[in-house]
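note to self: dont lose this again. the chain is below, predicted strucutre after it. 250 aa total, dont forget to put it in the shared folder this time
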Amino acid sequence: MRHGKKINHLGRKSAHRQAMLSNMAASLILHKRIKTTLQKAKALRMYIEPLINRSKDNTTHSRRIVFSYLQNKEAVTELFRNISDKISNRPGGYTRILKIENRLGDNAEMCYIELVDYNENMLKTDDKKTTTRRSRRGSGKSATISQATTEKPEKQEEPIKTIEETPAVEIIETPVVITQEIDNSKTENPEVPLEKFVETHEEEATEIVETSVVEAVETSVSDIETVVEEITKTEVEEETTENRLNGQKV
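---
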């Protein structure tokens, strides 16, 4: 019968369990946070917090006691040199357990166990919390005094001040005379409809088109003449070369 026995054996014998907790405590001191199962974290918390409390007394005797549990010189020096300074004003509760998602394989409850004074984000939130004071309402004279102090005096209505209106100043605009030479052609008909514009400029457009066509024809004719001259020259040269060849053969 196991009545009243709170120890969790963690499925291990005593020697195996002590070695595992010693290694986990040393890694927590060195790394300040480790990831493990929830049951192991609770067992580790019971194992490591008395050792951390022992580090407040920095003597050879306390160092030897802690070393007998941890069996790690680096962890002992870190505990007595750095961690003891941070936890000197804390009267207990040196570790924190943060639950996370369960493990995929066996669905075991997982968590982070960390040292409280080394989580800067959580320390900032603790500093921002403000304490609110609640006062109990008393009976009799105290209640009447509190009501009298809480009631705000009514604001006195201030007299309305009359403001005399000043007469508005009349502003007279003087026309500005601008002398500028303007073309008569633009001022006579400032807005001419599209049809009239087409009628007036139709003749000019036809003349421009005719002249452009004539120029294009002339250029094409001149090009044709130059090509014909080149062809005739080449034919004459070929005939002369043939005649020479025939004369040599005879």
